[in-house]
Write a structure and sequence with these properties.
It is built from 12 helices and 15 strands. It has 364 residues and is of the alpha/beta class. Strand 11 and strand 12 form a beta hairpin.
Length: 364
């Protein structure tokens, strides 16, 4: 239990929109209510979002015009003494990834309520800025500046990767409190115990947005075929929005396009599968991938096409995921089982029930 009654959670979008950050925030709110009896009031910061004024008993307000003044008014009207948890990803709040209105509004709110508590979860910091003909090249300095301002405004900062924490420390010259690193948890549930591969069907899963799945089918087909052959895969499950490709089978193995599914339905398929294939994100960004987190939480072996030369966020190629790069040999079932177990143990160190304790502590 907690003495804290309500948390204001600022998010880009919530369901029914398909949004990983929104799903993350909703899962966190559920767990805060379950474990600590803390209620969440959501403020949706994307003016194009369409949804109800309440979700699962959580009240929802929306910023219908990207205005710092409106944000200050909303924050002041609803539990002005309550802590604010900001789920930050620049492109979620502004088309070009520069939500100046959001940072300005929070700065004014902190000025009005200097004892208020702002906790920022940095899901992403800013775009890389390359190549030079893209808008992100020209806007990257402003995106960095906004991240620095948010860090300085926040009483606590959390992010999902060591690399992000290092960057924030460099940008702010380590003048802020310690930045906590919490790799993302699974948005589609977790298994308390994972069944052995011998208890599962020989299924492989390709799950994610259309672009990431297209990369698998168009750029990694040989590696996918080899993986299916060595693991004696009988079915390929394609989960998520359709790719638009004509998919029926690969080397005689049927592809079942499942489309958009509920978290419970996805969890059921993962629980009865042994492997998952992914070409995105790269290894250095796996800790921020809710898809990879879901694979780990369900005890699948994740197969990727690239690896890192060093351990990143506790993840090591060949130990926590398999690398189908032609240099690692063939993946046998025993090795796949061991890798899946290692990935599950890595995930258990920061599962949802453990992470919610960190958030509850910082919000109090």
């Amino acid at each position: 239990m907690s003495n804290l009654a309500t948390v204001i959670s600022i998010v880009p979008r919530l369901p029914p929109a398909i949004d990983g950050v929104g799903d993350y925030a909703l899962n966190l709110a559920r767990q805060l209510r379950k474990d600590f009896n803390i209620q969440t009031h959501f403020i949706v910061g994307n003016s194009t979002w369409q949804g109800a004024a309440e979700i699962e008993g959580f009240p929802v307000s929306q910023i219908t015009d990207n205005s710092a003044n409106i944000l200050v008014n909303v924050l002041s009207n609803y539990h002005s003494s309550s802590p604010v948890l900001l789920h930050y990803v620049g492109y979620g709040y502004a088309q070009r990834g520069c939500p100046v209105w959001l940072v300005d509004g929070l700065q004014r709110w902190k000025g009005l309520y200097p004892k208020s508590n702002l906790v920022t979860m940095f899901h992403e910091l800013y775009a890389s800025g390359y190549p030079p003909w893209t808008s992100s090249f020209w806007l990257s300095p402003l995106q960095k500046s906004l991240a620095v301002r948010l860090t300085q405004l926040s009483d606590r900062c959390i992010t999902n990767r060591q690399d992000c924490a290092n960057t924030l420390n460099q940008l702010t010259r380590s003048s802020q409190p310690e930045i906590i690193i919490q790799p993302v948890f699974s948005n589609i549930g977790e298994l308390k115990e994972i069944p052995l591969f011998s208890q599962r069907s020989r299924n492989i899963v390709i799950f994610g947005n259309p672009n990431s799945k297209k990369q698998v089918y168009q750029q990694c087909i040989k590696q996918l075929e080899q993986t299916c052959q060595t693991l004696k895969i009988k079915m390929i499950y394609d989960i998520g929005k359709p790719t638009g490709l004509e998919l029926s089978s690969i080397k005689g193995i049927p592809i079942q396009e499942m489309g958009v599914m509920t978290s419970g339905e996805i969890s059921g398929i993962l629980t009865n599968s042994i492997a998952a294939f992914m070409n995105y994100p790269p290894p250095k960004e796996l800790a921020k991938s809710t898809v990879f987190a879901a694979y780990c939480a369900h005890g699948l072996v994740s197969v990727m096409t690239s690896s890192s030369q060093k351990i990143i966020d506790g993840l090591e190629g060949g130990k926590h995921y398999w690398v189908a790069d032609g240099k690692s040999g063939n993946l046998c079932l025993d090795t796949a089982q061991m890798i899946a177990q290692n990935a599950y143990l890595w995930y258990e160190n920061h599962n949802l029930s453990k992470q919610v304790k960190v958030f509850a502590n910082y919000l109090n």
